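Write out the bound-state structure for nicotinamide-adenine-dinucleotide.
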Amino acid sequence: MRILVCGGAGYIGSHTCLSLAERGHQVVVADSGVNSSARVVPRLRRLAGMPVPVHRVDLRDRGALSVLFATYRFDAVLHFAALKAVGDSCRRPLEYFDNNISGTIVLLQTMQAAGVRRLVFSSSATVYGEPAQVPVREDAALSVMNPYGRTKLVAEQLIGDLCTADTGFRAANLRYFNPVGAHASGLIGEDPCGEPTNLMPYICQVAVGVREKLRVFGGDYPTVDGTGVRDYIHVVDLARAHVDALEYMVREDRSVTVNLGTGRGVSVLELVHAFERASGRRIPYEIVDRRPGDAASVFADPSLAQELLGWRAEFDVDAMCRDAWRWQAMNPEGYRTSVRRTPVMRVRRPKIVAARVADAY
Ligand code: NAD
Ligand code: WQD
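---
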C-alpha cells in the first residue's frame, strides 16, 4: 500500500515509517516541521533503504494537502501530526485546539474528498484521565485532564462520528501509554525541544551531562517504592502495532480502538535503576513534590490488541533503556549534533509534480 504518514518526521512517526517500509509499504511523509528536524530525513531514507518523499505541509493548509492527495493515490493515512506537551497545552490551549483538532478536521475532509477511507490515529492513554482502576481496559471511562488530552478525546469522537456517517470509512484509534526508546541503529530517536517534560528523555539528558539531576515527582504514592508507576513501551514495538492495525483494518474491514502498552507497570525509580544498568552511568536524583495532575499508577490491559491485531510488546524495560541510551550517546544534542558522522545514502529525489507541495525537506 501507499501510505501518507502525517507527522512522519517526528519521534513515533519516523519509527513507524521504517516499520511500514520493512513490511513492503510505500511511505510519503507530510510534516509541518513544527516539532521535527530536517536532519531526520536523510537518516530515515537511509534506514528505509528506499526513497521516502517528505513534504513540508501543515495539515491545516487545505490547499497544500489537497495537492498532495492529488499527486499520490494513497491507500491509507497514518496521523501522528499533533502538538503533544501537556503543560504547554495549558498555557496555549487555542494553539493546541487549532493544530490538533482543526488539523484533523481538514485531514478528514481531504481524505473524504479524495476517497481515502482508512485512518490510523495516534491517540493516547491520556483519554482515560486518572483511571479508576488498573490495568486500564478500552471500555474504561474517558475523561479530560488538560487541553492536550481534550484534543485527543475530541479527535477520537470526530473520527467515530465520521465512521458512523460514512459506513465505508475505517479507523484505528491507538491509545499509546508511555513511548520510550529508539531505533537500534541509534540514528533516529526522541529529540525534545528545550527541557524535557517526560521522564525518559530527562534521564537521558542527565546521563549525558546536559542536566545535573533528575527531579522525581513524588515519593509518597501508594506504589512499590512510593514513586509513580507507568507503562513504558518501546517505540519500535509501538511502530509495529501501526502496521498491524493498518493490515487488520484492510483484512477484516473493521474499525478498532486499542491500548498499546506492555501491561507492566514500572516505577520512576525502577526505570532510573534499569537505565543505570544499561548505560553504566549514575543518574543523580532528588525526590521532590508530586507534579500536579499526575496519577499514582497507570498501566494498560493490552489484551485486546493481542486478540484483534495479533500484536504484543516484545521489548522489556532493559531494552528500552539500552536503545534510549544508544540514541542519546550517539546524539548528545539530539539531531543538532552527532558524535559519529552519519553518512547519507544518495537517493533519487522523487519528482514532485505540484508547486504547492514542492517544498520538500
Ligand atoms: P512529535 O512531536 O515527535 O511528532 C509529531 C510530528 O507532527 C512532528 O514532526 C511535528 O512537526 C508534526 N506536526 C505537528 N503538527 C502538525 C501539523 N499541523 N501539520 C503537519 N505536521 C504537524 O511527537 P510524537 O511523540 O512522535 O507523537 C506522535 C503522536 O503520538 C502525536 O499525535 C502525539 O500526541 C501522540 N502521542 C504521543 C505520546 C508520547 O508520549 N510521545 C503518547 C501518546 C500519544
Ligand atoms: C512519567 C512518570 C512522573 C518527569 C505524559 C502525558 C501523556 C502522554 C505521555 C501524550 C510520572 C515522573 C516525569 C520528571 C518525574 N503523552 N517524572 N520526573 O505523565 O505518564 O504522560 O506523556 O499523549 O498524555 O501526560 O509521562 O514521562 O511525563 O512521566 O518524576 O522529570 O515520571 O511524575 O510518574 P506521563 P511522563
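---
The chain has one domain: 2-359.
Residues 6-7, 9-13, 31-36, 58-60, 80-84, 99, 103, 122, 124, 176, 179 surround nicotinamide-adenine-dinucleotide (ligand 1) (CB under 6 Å).
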